[in-house]
Amino acid sequence: MATSGLVVVDKPAGITSHDVVARVRRLAGTRKVGHAGTLDPMATGVLVVGVERATRLLGHLMLTDKAYDATVRLGVATVTDDAEGDVVAEAPAAHLRPEQVEAELGRQVGEILQVPTAVSAIKVDGRRAYQRARAGEEVELAARPVTVHALEVHDQRVVGDWLDVDISVRCSSGTYIRAIARDVGAALGVGGHLTALRRTAVGPYGLDAARTLDELAAETTILPIADAARAAFRSVDLDEDRARDVRHGRPLELEISSLTAVFAPDGEFLALYEPRDGRARPVAVFVG
């Protein structure tokens, strides 16, 4: 049986997140594999893949902060807000001053309301938005609150009539970097889209822990579920009595302030608990 744990993949461009999952299924010898947070085919970088019992961690990992490096092209708007979509508008952008661009990007930092891109994976009446958009339907998505913790501009360079801007972003789950490019381009009156996107971290898992598919084919590296849980969540080691309560899914008299991984005295990962109604209550129990 395959080991339960996480595989941190450095996804290449040109394939889908589902393609990565299919490859890991073959390498790990199990169909019980999933991923935390889709990356578009154009995007590269950190894709966290769960194997066996660790697939139950993925929904919680999807809620963690993420980090990206990206290139925004100002002067061209596309239907998908990235380089894979048809161009819908063009306007000269080479005249934009660096401080003007930085100021507009700075307005994207903090707690903001962001309209997701029309080709997102958000469901609209039971179907993904991107399925509706690619079928030619008009897709209108409501703005939703997201948090951009930091946005750093690394370089600005003129490319013909356009302006390419290299940025790094650290943000909450659910933030669309494509939407930042779109909104900044619109605010500057020239349009904008992403020409490159690389995810550099999902929660505690960064590129330093990621392996390419070729590297995984040579040696499949699975981070054991206990190590994965300790890295991603606050952790508490329990005595045997409390560990027994956890195995039966009971609440604990335990002071915790956020989602917490709890462990048996021998280091076995038992469950995720959250504070609720003055007690620590189980969110997901991983042992019987």
UniProtKB/TrEMBL annotation:
HAMAP family: TruB_bact (MF_01080). Its EC number is 5.4.99.25. Belongs to the pseudouridine synthase TruB family. Type 1 subfamily. The active site is at D40. This is tRNA pseudouridine synthase B. The gene is truB. It catalyses: uridine(55) in tRNA = pseudouridine(55) in tRNA. SUPFAM superfamilies: Pseudouridine synthase (SSF55120), PUA domain-like (SSF88697). Transmembrane segments: none annotated. The keyword Cell division does not apply. Residues 233-286 form the tRNA pseudouridine synthase II TruB subfamily 2 C-terminal domain. NCBIfam families: TruB. The keyword Methyltransferase does not apply. Responsible for synthesis of pseudouridine from uracil-55 in the psi GC loop of transfer RNAs. Keywords: Isomerase, tRNA processing. Gene3D superfamilies: Pseudouridine synthase, PUA domain. Residues 25-177 form the Pseudouridine synthase II N-terminal domain. Residues 178-219 form the tRNA pseudouridylate synthase B C-terminal domain. InterPro entries: PsdUridine_synth_cat_dom_sf (IPR020103), PsdUridine_synth_N (IPR002501), PUA-like_sf (IPR015947), PUA_sf (IPR036974), tRNA_psdUridine_synth_fam2_C (IPR015225), tRNA_psdUridine_synth_TruB (IPR014780), TruB_C (IPR032819).
